[in-house]
Amino acid sequence: MRTLVVGLGRAGAELHLPVLARARTSVRQLFDDRQIVACDPRRLPAERPGLAMVGSIAEAAALLDPADTVAHVCTPPTTRAEVMAELAERGFRNVISEKPLAADTDDLARLTRLRRKHALRIAVVEPWLTSSLTVRLTELIRGGTLGEPKSISIVQNKPRFRRSLTRPSHLTAFDVELPHGVALALRLAGSARVTHAAGCDLTVGDVVVPRMGGARIGLRHNSGVRTEIGSDLTSPVRERRITVEFERGSAVGHYAVSDDDDHSQLTVTVNGRSEHEVLRDDSLTEWMIRAYRLFHAGGDQHARGFAFATDVVQLLSVAKNICAEPVIPAARGEASPGPVAANVR
Fold first, then answer.
1. What is the distance, to the nearest Å, from the Cα of residue 28 to the centroid of all Cα atoms in its chain?
2. How far apart are CA 17 and CA 23, in angstroms?
3. Do the strands 207-221 and 226-232 form a parallel or antiparallel pair, or are they unpaired?
4. Which of 37, 49, 79, 261 has the most other CB atoms within 10 Å of its CB?
């Protein structure tokens, strides 16, 4: 299959293109060996080896056969519906969307109608769901050796000053890291509702970027498990950590914090004794290969994943609506407890 990448910001240029290079090397029979086509209506970057760069989707469509092409939508969440609509009109049906699938429920409804009208096959990027660490955590939960899971805590911290100050591609901190965390919680503990949410501004001197300092969401799963997910985008350190508390022990996992490494770690504690494990975990490459295989197989193999992604957007939309009040900056590492923090009963 051939590839079209729409949007050459960080997601397109620094994540999708390098991952595609690795995937094309490891599973050559799955990918056409001709150039990847890439376009960004906002800018046309310098030429790259193995990449045909164009300025519009119309130009890209002239170089490709939409029937055997996968289109990667790496534009900001607020423009996803518009981009997918143009792709659909030009005959593209296989689409990979960056997370989150949509910025709000209105955009989600537009995408759902587009998918139905044009028979789009949409896969939403969720590398944590194919992660080796997630597989191990799922085995622990289903195996029952630690008893029933009681609570989950997910921390997703990183300093994100430069991008938030210079390239505001996201409207709130809920759209940056939390889509991964919410999806992970749903995969491990099942369907849930929002119990509370909070958020804060990013403040640097006299400069304030509304709602981009951090975010927190609480979930209560139908299984009885409670989840807390927090993301501090002013943190001085990077961390992607999950803690699952069981009846008879605990599991603490650390996902890779960037594309610089491809390993995750897991520590399981039972009766005061701990075992540590390092896992090979190039989850985004594995996710990409799996997505292309499903496209190649034909049919709407991604339908279940699309439904799952809509659940994530709906929960995040509830959280953002809770935080629609004016925001108050919080201390480092904490989501504001002021007007933006609220509970849903």
1. 26
2. 10
3. antiparallel
4. 37
